[in-house]
What we know:
The chain has helices spanning 12-23, 41-48, 64-76, 94-99, 120-126, 162-190; strands spanning 2-6, 29-35, 53-55, 82-85, 104-108, 131-138, 148-155. It has 191 residues and is of the alpha/beta class. It has a seven-stranded mixed sheet with strand order 3-2-1-4-5-6-7, sandwiched between helices. 5-O-phosphono-beta-D-ribofuranosylamine binds next to helix 1 and strand 5. InterPro entries: Formyl_transf_N, Formyl_transf_N_sf, GART.
Amino acid sequence: xxxxxxxxxxxxxxxxxxxxxxxxxxxxxxxxxxxxxxxxxxxxxxxxxxxxxxxxxxxxxxxxxxxxxxxxxxxxxxxxxxxxxxxxxxxxxxxxxxxxxxxxxxxxxxxxxxxxxxxxxxxxxxxxxxxxxxxxxxxxxxxxxxxxxxxxxxxxxxxxxxxxxxxxxxxxxxxxxxxxxxxxxxxxxxx
Length: 191
Ligand code: GRF
């Protein structure tokens, strides 16, 4: 089960995936960590773990299709079967989508379809919702719109700061994402 992780940021979900692999609860190999941000902290995390890493700056390509063609080549040359988005802050375009139908998944820090897009936690706090959560979904051509695979809810209390909510969300994410990936792989391998 060869997977690629696409990430633009800190990489705590990348770490959770790697830990699950090390512990034997996720039967997969991360063949590639791809990032679109040269200074993303996730890159160093991947290098420390000896995960093959590519950093592609979209600005150095003529257009999105050219950028994605390069990204796709990096996946295909490593026989990547699944693309796991973990804090990847860019829409996946048709070049990559068409090459990996129903094989790209994302994790989002809200109970979708509520609070799509950026700063989902901030959006939830602004609305003063009492329950929020985490969603894992297939990626389609929209922003956080694809079919939902799994969700987990959590409560927000009145005196929770944004940092506290983020910590709660991430604790859920780090359990949920590796588990959902394992379930998907198992199902697909049984076909
Ligand atoms: C996570 O909260 C995820 O839900 C969202 O971006 C964040 C990435 O965090 N899509 P990290 O880089 O994995 O720490």
